[in-house]
Amino acid sequence: MIEKNIEIEQIYFLKILNSLDDAIYITDKTGKTLWMNEINKKIFESHKSRMIGKSVAELENEGVFNPSIIKKVIETGKTITKVQTLVNGEKYMTTGHLILSDDGDIEYVVAHGRNMNKIASSAPQLELGEINALLQRYIQEFRNLNKHNLLNKNGTTFVGQSQSFVRLAEIIETVASVDTTVLITGETGVGKNIVAQQIHNLSERHDKPFIHVNCASIPKTLIESELFGYSKGAFTGANTGGKVGLIQLAESGTLFLDEIGELPLQLQSKLLQLLQNKTYKPIGALQTKNANIRIIAATNRDLEMMIDEGTFRRDLFYRLNVLPITILPLRERKEDIFPLLQFYLNTFNTRHKKNRFFTMEAIEILQNYTWPGNIRELENFVEQLVVMVKQDEISLSDLPERFHKAETENKDLHLQLQGDTLPEILDNVERDIIKEAYKQHKSTRKTAQFLGIPQSTFMRRLKKYGIDTKTN
C-alpha cells in the first residue's frame, strides 16, 4: 500500500507552500524556472508572466535577482546560502539546494528565501540551521510528490494528487489483490481503461494476457463470434478452421469489457453464464469450455436506468457490480489537472522534440476549466498546443476562445456568489442585473419595461442598491 501519511501530504503540498511567508522557487536541473509560490509572485509582480520557463541566468542578467543562488548551486553542485537582493530592493537570506534522483543525478533545484527584516525581528532569531532544516522538509515533500503522483506499473501511467485520486489508488490496490469481477463507471474520458489496466498490472494475473474489448466498436452481428469464437462449419461463410474467441485469448488473464452497456440484450445471457459458471460455448460447438479469466467491465451509461428501460439484465448487473469503482470527472478533482498538464506536456515535448512550457496565467485558466472530455480531452489538447504553438511559451493568447469564455463565466459566478446568506447572494445578482440593464437601455422607464416590473419598483431597487443613474 502507498503510505497514507505521504498521500495526504502530497495533496496539500503546493497549498502549504503557497501559504508560506517564505519564498520558494523551483527550477529544473538546467536552471529553467518551473514554479514559484504566491509570495514570489507578489515580489516579482511585474515580471512573473515571463519568468516561468526562463533560466535563472537570464533573469539574473535582467536584474530580477542578484545574485542567482540557484545558478551558483548548479555551478558548484553544493548547497549555498547567501543574501540575495531582489528587484523590489528587498534582501532575502536564500538557501539553494539540489534535489537528486535515486541514481544521484540532479532532478530539480529549490531555493528557499526569508526576508532579512523578518529574520532580524524574529525572537528568538531564526538560525540558519533551522532554515536549512525547513528546506530539507520541503525537498523531501517535493520528491514524495513526484514519486507518488505518477503510478507507473508495466507501462500504465496513472497521474494525480487529489484526495479522490489517492482514494482511487487505494481501491485499485485492494481490488487487485482479489480475483472478483469489477465494474468501473465514469464519464467518457476519465480513464476507465487505465484503471482496468492498473488493476490487472497489480494482480496475480499481471504476467498473463489483458484483452481489451470495446463492445461499442464491434458490430452487433459480429460481437458474439468475436467474444466466444466458433467451431468449424458453424455457419455459412465461417472460417473453415473455426475461430478462437477473445475469451479464449484472455485465458489465465483479464478480459476487459469496455462500454458494457452497448452489449446486445440477447448476448447478455451468455455473458451471465460466463460470470456465474466460468464456462461458455463457442458458436456451433457441442460442448462448453472452461474459462480461467477475470472480468472487468466499464461503462459511461446508467445501467440501473437501462434495467428500468428493459435494455440491460438486472441479474447481469448484480453479477458485474460486485466490486464497483466510480471515477470522478476532472471538474470534481481539480487538484489533478496541474500534474496531468505537466505530465502530458513533458510527454509530448519529448515525442515531438519541443521545449514548450505554460505561463502561470495559462495554467490558472486551464486549472479552472471544466474539461467536459476529461483526461482524454486534456491529453489531446496539450498535444495540439505542443505541435501548433509557434513559440516555446504557451500563453493566454494561445488558448481557444472556449477557455477564455469559461474563465469569464467563472468570475461572473464568483462575483454573484459573494455574500454569506442566500438573500445576500440574490441581492448581489439582482443589483448586477439592474446595473447591466440600465447601462443598455439608458432610461428608467425603458429598463423597467425590459425587466418586466413597474417603474416605481425599479426606482426603489435603484435606491436600495445605491445605484447612481448619472454614472451608469
Automatic annotation (TrEMBL):
Pfam family, one: AAA_lid_14
SMART domains, sorted: AAA (SM00382)
Entry keyword Aminoacyl-tRNA synthetase: no
Highest taxon listed in the record's lineage: Bacteria
Keyword presence, Transcription: yes
InterPro entries in the record: AAA+_ATPase, AAA_lid_NorR, Homeodomain-like_sf, HTH_TyrR, P-loop_NTPase, PAS, PAS-like_dom_sf, Sigma_54_int
Alphabetically ordered keywords of this record: Aromatic hydrocarbons catabolism, ATP-binding, Nucleotide-binding, Transcription, Transcription regulation
Domain PAS: 9-59
Chain ranges of the Sigma-54 factor interaction domain: 158-387
Protein name (Swiss-Prot/TrEMBL): HTH-type transcriptional regulatory protein TyrR
